[in-house]
Amino acid sequence: MLPAPRPLIVAAAVICFCFGSALLPSLAEGKVHHHTWNITYQHKSRDCFEKLAVTVNGEAPGPTIRATQGDTIVVTVHNKLETENTAIHWHGIRQIDTPWADGVAGVTQCPIQPGETFTYRFVVDRAGTYLYHAHYGMQRVAGLNGMIVVSVPEGVTEPFAYDKQHTVLLEDWWHKSVYDQATGLSAKPLVFVGEPQSLLINGRGIFNCSKPVPATGTCNTSSPDCGLRSLFTVVPGKTYLLRIGSLTSLSSLSFEIEGHSLTVVEADGHYVRPFVVRNLFIYSGETYSVLVKADQDPRRNYWATSHIVGRNPTTPSGKAIVSYAGNDPQMTPPTAPTTGPPWNNTAIRVEQSRAIVAHPGYVVPAPARADRTLILLNTQNNIDGHIKWTINGVSLHFPATPYLVSMKHGLTAAYDQRPPLDSYDLMGYNISAPAPTNGTIGSPVYRLAFDSVVDVVLQNSNMLDNRRETHPWHLHGHDFWVLGHGDGKFNPAADAWRLLNVKDPIMKNTVPLHPDGWTAIRFHANNPGVWLFHCHVEAHVFMGMGVVFEEGVDRVRRLPSSIMGCGHSKGLH
């Protein structure tokens, strides 16, 4: 295992850019946090089954980055994977004035090749809970991920109080390698990734080693990497802020702490009108902050559990222990682990999505109307024998030259010039039946007028086998207003005003599209760059479920040569 270099913190003055948030000062004194990361493969037994994981300084998940709003983060990445490229996305960080630091291979940069070093430098312009993860191929599945915690500046008061805070990172985990999974998704016929073997909480899980395991691996329940562990210890009467993030590759989850209520106070870096749940539904790419009061019997410990929802689960629940001070932190609770809500109850998940609105004191007013509306239909298609996901008939294929480079330098041969469709056949298409057309594979771009307001309606439809799934959609470079969630097919005439919330919509960067329904969002295209908008299920984006937005690329300052060198940009490196 390689030693973990210590982060270096340097004082500096940085400007905090105001992009519609009531939390941002116009000028603040910030610090510069330097991190040096070695990205390597290491043998890990995260759920007791030993396999290779992509690690940051030998650890998976990687270290939590901590900073204060207005600080600058500098991460120097050494790719020591030997035979594999990489790139790291800073999920939820808007990259204002640094679009090349978004970390998406094929969109904002060339991948970091084996043996090469790349430095990301960006400002964390808003307090909240965020994530980071690999954004090259399906590499996120292999464990390169972690959390980012941005605190409010000194003297700024949050609209809730707590005694201590903790981070909780939720993942799913496969024993099959990333290469096996990607090869299966590209095969004719399709070999899907299947259900995960385990659910992890803060990087740990428990696989039943009595079950059959691949011949290439070993399973050992005595490994120090796996097994039950105390998530944190609480003191009776104290209140705790849990910063919860999901970086699952496939699974939608329900998270709960046995016997304790969770009061939701923040979502994706924005304060929400507080509401209480027993089970927090959380989708890949989302973050929530919840308050938990230690108000139960202090003589025992309690279960913290994660459960798959939205898919018929064959994966055991993720389990950890919440211990009360004075008890053995590893003492198993006397009760059976909680089992969570029914996996197929879509209604209660939609109900929670609709309950998430802006905190009354922190409403960021949404523009009154949009300049452009995109209605994006996702379908699963058979294209020349390959199963793909398409948006309005196009399955996204990342070009060899990053969009940001090709569009800034006029390399028009590097991506599709034909614009994608703003809508689909609203009247004729049956969302309850499999896709009747084959679709195409391409790399087109939605070119948005700079400073315009854009509405996007995500429309779900049935898969080729007539099943329905949840798709969490993540927008890079922006936060958006969540205007509403509806059932069935979106009808612009009937739904436009009756169901959309323009009074106190929450702002987020990731939102679920529920089965047999639609989700409407609105965003301000005022961040110059090229930005990916995609389903955060790793297999789905690999199979083409995404689109690309360009806005104001002519306003982007000179691109650093370090993001170039692949495809048509080889001569620009």
Summarize the structure.
The protein is mainly β and 573 residues long. The protein contains 5 helices and 33 strands.
Low-confidence stretches: 1-28
Mean pLDDT: 93
Largest sheet at a glance? 6 strands, mixed
Could you give the order of strands across the largest sheet?
Answer: 11-10-13-18-15-16
What's the helix count? 5
Distance between the termini: 33 Å
Helical content class: under 10%
Question: Nearest-angstrom radius of gyration?
Answer: 23 Å
Record field, number of beta strands: 33
**Which class do the helix and strand fractions yield?**
mainly beta
Shape: globular
What fraction of the residues are assigned to beta strands by DSSP? 35-45%
List the helices and strands and how they pair.
Blueprint: E1 8-14, E2 28-44, E3 51-56, E4 65-68, E5 72-79, E6 88-91, E7 117-123, E8 128-134, E9 145-151, E10 164-173, H1 178-186, E11 198-201, E12 230-234, E13 239-246, E14 252-257, E15 262-267, E16 270-277, E17 280-282, E18 287-293, E19 302-309, E20 318-324, H2 346-355, E21 372-383, E22 386-391, E23 394-396, H3 403-408, E24 440-442, E25 446-448, E26 452-459, E27 471-475, E28 480-487, H4 492-498, E29 507-508, E30 510-513, E31 517-525, E32 529-535, H5 538-542, E33 546-551
Parallel strand pairs: 2-5, 4-9, 10-13, 12-20, 21-26, 23-24, 25-33
Antiparallel strand pairs: 1-2, 2-3, 5-7, 6-8, 8-9, 10-11, 13-18, 14-17, 14-19, 15-16, 15-18, 19-20, 21-22, 26-31, 27-30, 27-32, 28-29, 28-31, 32-33
